[in-house]
Fold this protein.
Amino acid sequence: MPTSQQLFERASLSIAGGVNSPVRAFRAVGGTPVFFSRAHGPFLYDAEGREYIDYVGSWGPMIAGHANPDVLDAVRAAISHGLSFGAPTAIETDMAERVRELFPSMERLRFCSSGTEATMSAIRLARGFTGRDTIVKFEGCYHGHSDSLLVKAGSGALTFGVPSSPGVPADLAKHTLNLPFNDLQAAEQLFQTHGEQLACVIIEPITGNMNMVLPEPGFLEGLRALCDRAGVVLIFDEVMTGFRVAPGGAQGLYGIQPDLTCLGKIIGGGMPVGAFGGRQAIMDQLAPLGPVYQAGTLSGNPVAMAAGIATLTVLSRPGFFDQLSATTTAFVEGILEAARDAGIPMAGVSQGGMFGLFFHPGPVRCLTDVMAANEAHFKAFFHGMLAEGVYLAPSLYEAGFVSSTHGPAELERTFNAARKVLATLS
Ligand code: KE4
């Protein structure tokens, strides 16, 4: 049975960097990425059969646990009718109606195959709708890897110290302005000087790509008011927070209506699905109705739709979010208690099934705070927990995720591991 090391060496002979997405490469924590062969419920199993309690959940999609039987049954049924038609199917409408039940701001929507496609399409649409070129994002927020959004981006871009990627033409990057997250005064100043030039503001309403940072009271409401006054499209990138922090995402949690919303991850239940949508007046600018072009061979793929619908069905069950939130809250509290007992400064936050842990005394309210966290402690904690069979995100700039299949036994194993590892940190 090959080891992860052997598999990584072999992969590196064919796949750039040995991985199909940079954050998987363990570059931020050192060592060899673990190759997994299967997963079930809250568990991952590596190439040698070792079991790990999984707090990454494929970076968010696996909210109902790995290999959820209802989701697998739905996919099996779907594949028996064929994999892809490149033509409309009723199941796409079924999915669209399910999404709109939870995200009523999405008067019209369109499916694509990734969160990157969703956000890339949303900013093109905002530019086409307003006739303006300049977009605003927030330092440390990550919206996928389309050119205009790889400017001071988070997630892997931040992890590897290239928040503004080479290859993005300066003539394009200049149209992307960045603001500090949670700094409404900076936003007000920008709108005073540039408001009428702005096509959109795109934001992770709760960030997950500079780890998890909550919006301060009034921040999102202030952005909504600024955009209303200047005719700027407000885009909530809920690729990570959608169906995760609450059934209706952060917009449902905070009662704020964006003009456009981007979705991904959970919406596909582990299959490649993204979506964007919002006010009909904006969405009607999309081809074939309007002039803004957007397309995709596998957009609305019927098998992926089946996985998404099955996942939304599971998470819509009574009590699902109450239990998920309670488990996630208990997880953070248990880790913080272990850190206090070990005399290690840590801060933590959670909402729904998403959490952030920081080797930082707190509060953590913006990228500067996140970057001040103790990286050495994080790396040692990551590897110590990995050795104890607990899989955390291999970057201190990533949020973590709990599924409905994590229970008291998994939490107890996690806390025992944390107490053991934290005691080794100096
Ligand atoms: P994808 O293109 O990776 O499906 O979605 C891009 C994206 C857009 N918006 C937000 C808020 C996101 O979190 C993401 C993707 N998140 C990262 C993890 N932080 C995906 C993991 C990876 O890049 O491999």
In short: The mean pLDDT is 97. The first helix runs from residue 4 to 11. The longest strand covers residues 198-203. The chain is about 40% helix and 15% strand.
